[in-house]
Amino acid sequence: METILLQPNGYCSGVKRAIDLALKEANKQSKPLIMLSPLIHNETALAKLAKENIQLAQGDPIDIILDAPRGSRILFSAHGHPFSYDELCLLKGHKSYDSTCPFVYENMQKAATWEGAICYIGEISHEECKAFLANVPEALCYELPEKKWNPLKLKGKNQPVGILCQTTLGNKEIEEAIEDIRSFFPDATVLGMNCPSTRARQENIERLSDVDALIVLGSTTSSNSKRLAKIGKEKGLPTFLALGLEEVKSLDLSSFKRIALASGASTEAETIQEVFTYLKSL
Fold first, then answer.
1. By the 8 A CB rule, do 266 and 40 touch?
2. Could you report the per-residue pLDDT of 201-259, keeping only the tens digit for each?
3. How far apart are CA 48 and CA 98, in angstroms?
């Protein structure tokens, strides 16, 4: 089967940075690294981390920090975290490791230096959105997918409005949200979009032609992976979201001659190569 491997694929720079940090620190001590929440959204990658002295804790992050034995090692997610967790770790005598994606952190820095109101476009249930709103509590959230927000909270403040967004969102939904916000605040300034890797992966699927189907390698828990699959479906392509080789093998691909293969930002290169080799063998 002819298989077109879309670029970029594999880990984005933020995910690679988080994985590299975790693996570098994992075995420096006998104490495990404790993840308060999944470092990234990919079950295969998390299973491999679990074999490297990196444990995913269950429960409320604050309770985990408070209940952990003094001197524990706490690993913060690539999606960001409330800065109050750093202070709590210090108070409890823990060592903390921050794997926050630079693009996520940059959003918080932009909000801190913006002299005006902030409207943040994000999924209220996503860790990145939760972290941003915890660290920038004065921000107004434009909630997706419901497009729920209250512009009256920004009106009458006589200050410029800045727009930031979750880095894993879709190009189209960001553009629509910005248009909606600017219908109330025409001079609103866009301070940041989704990250370059997310945007490039989506644009490459949007430009696809002359293929019979699309396979996106990624987790159903991954915001950016699900959006890649959504774009494929919106183009009218038979589209499949699969975690790895075993799920791909279970698909009936017999009617397709030319398939595009894409990946979310948390899918490792090994998984992509396995699936690519398998598809080419069909």
1. yes
2. 999 999 999 999 999 999 999 999 999 999 999 999 999 999 999 999 999 999 999 99
3. 20
Burial (CB count within 10 angstroms: exposed 0-12, middle 13-18, buried 19+), residue 1: middle
Rounded to 10 deg, the angle between the 223-234 and 196-206 helix axes is 20
Q: Quick one: tokens of 261?
A: 């293969």
The three-class DSSP label of residue 207 is: coil
Per mean pLDDT, which range of 72-81, 149-158, 254-263 is the poorest? 149-158
**pLDDT confidence of 156, banded at 50, 70, 90?**
low
Helix/strand/coil (H/E/C) assignment for every residue in 23-73: HHHHCCCCCCEEECCCCCCCHHHHHHHHCCCEEECCCCHHHHHHHCCCCCE
188-207 per-position pLDDT tens digit:
999 999 999 999 999 999 99
**How many Cα atoms sit within 13 Å of 268 on the Cβ side?**
18
End-to-end CA distance of the chain: 5
Calculate ∠ Cα 218-222-228, nearest 5°: 65
